[in-house]
Structure to design on (397 residues):
């Protein structure tokens, strides 16, 4: 049997998160074709991965400040380049900014000759609007340098690709490959029991994620508080720094008793399986896997028209991302609402509760839409992109 070619994926960690989940899923497919190495800044692995994957622990912190991160990059890139040389790494794949910067230095300073693919996971312009001036300055400086060193850049949404071209001035080939989801596993986990009994006649909304600024769970709470229908219950799966603000908004409106906090869940799907509809209130996203997962479970979905992902998922032929202002929009696979408008989100949520035919139509369509993101087919595209084979062989993207 011929020896497998060596492929390296570098990412900060495999802590629970969107990019991390994608990597964990891809590892199972890539390990069939390649000798897979995984370089982690911090050796945190919260997903199941194949035993044969070789781990390279760079023994660094995920939470370093920008200045310290920059200072350490050359030494870390040298260490990573030496690892690639020792293990004959032919393909080096970077997820998230810091690993992309390392790959740039590996090529420019330390002579790495293999194929480099950099994977962008967020709409940089939208995300940077939430960051400090120093982070904005450094990112706008470093991303064009880094990505223009790659052989290929992968974005997971078309709006993200256009941002890289128009705003970040990336000139290298950019391809769009959406995030994959493992539909059979999601359906299986959704059937696991939950120690909770639904009340008859109550409509259950659910939202899942980290309570961070850009996810804007307080917006969802304001919308929930402002709904005309007061028989609904909201299930919140997650935790994070905005918890105090969320609790204060609920207490101020007297709606605390109608909200269920589950905390972080290794299996959020069993809670999603209980719900009647899903809500994504984010100001900005990379590509919200949880919205795809909700579609796979047949949940009618409401999402903000944020950069980026929701419109491409639930309204693929309908308008431009971020174009929605002042009203909600019923689209092919869900409802879109303007970013930052709790009043409009409340109206959309009331509509979802009251319109049974709308929900039935979305339930029927949602699962069909999710199939377009099924893991085996999408994983094959990533495999071809990483190796430069198949549809990516000798072809500008």
């Amino acid at each position: 049997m011929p020896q497998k070619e060596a492929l390296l994926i570098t990412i900060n960690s495999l802590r629970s998160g969107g990019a991390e989940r994608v990597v964990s899923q891809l590892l199972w497919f890539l390990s069939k074709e390649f000798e897979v190495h995984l370089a982690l800044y911090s050796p945190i692995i919260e997903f199941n991965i194949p035993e044969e994957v070789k781990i390279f622990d760079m023994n660094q912190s995920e939470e370093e400040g920008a200045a310290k991160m920059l200072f350490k990059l050359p030494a870390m890139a040298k260490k990573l380049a030496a690892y690639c040389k020792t293990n004959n790494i032919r393909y080096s794949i970077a997820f998230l900014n810091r690993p992309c910067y390392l790959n740039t230095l590996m090529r420019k300073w330390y002579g790495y000759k293999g194929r480099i693919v950099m994977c962008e996971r967020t709409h940089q312009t939208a995300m940077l609007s939430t960051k400090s001036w120093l982070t904005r300055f450094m990112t706008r400086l470093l991303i064009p340098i880094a990505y223009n060193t790659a052989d290929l850049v992968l974005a997971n949404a078309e709006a993200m690709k256009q941002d890289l071209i128009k705003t970040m001035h990336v000139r290298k080939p950019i391809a769009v490959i959406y995030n994959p989801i493992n539909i059979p596993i999601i359906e299986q986990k959704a059937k696991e029991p939950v120690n909770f009994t639904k009340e008859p006649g109550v409509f259950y909304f659910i939202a899942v994620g980290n309570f961070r600024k850009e996810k804007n769970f307080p917006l969802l709470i304001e919308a929930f508080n402002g709904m005309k229908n007061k028989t609904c219950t909201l299930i919140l799966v997650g935790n994070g720094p905005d918890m105090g603000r969320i609790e204060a908004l609920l207490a101020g409106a007297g709606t605390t008793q109608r909200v269920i906090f589950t905390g972080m869940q290794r299996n959020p799907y069993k809670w999603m399986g209980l719900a009647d509809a899903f809500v994504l209130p984010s100001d900005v996203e990379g590509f919200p896997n949880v919205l795809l997962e909700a579609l796979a479970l047949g949940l009618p979905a409401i999402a903000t028209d944020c950069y980026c992902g929701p419109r491409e998922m639930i309204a693929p032929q309908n308008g431009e991302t971020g174009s929605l202002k002042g009203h909600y929009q019923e689209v092919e696979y869900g409802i879109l609402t303007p970013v930052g408008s709790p009043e409009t989100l409340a109206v959309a949520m009331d509509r979802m509760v009251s319109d049974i035919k709308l929900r039935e139509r979305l339930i029927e369509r949602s699962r069909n839409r999710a199939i377009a993101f099924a893991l085996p087919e999408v994983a094959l595209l990533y495999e071809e992109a990483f190796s430069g084979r198949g549809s990516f062989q000798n072809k500008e993207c």
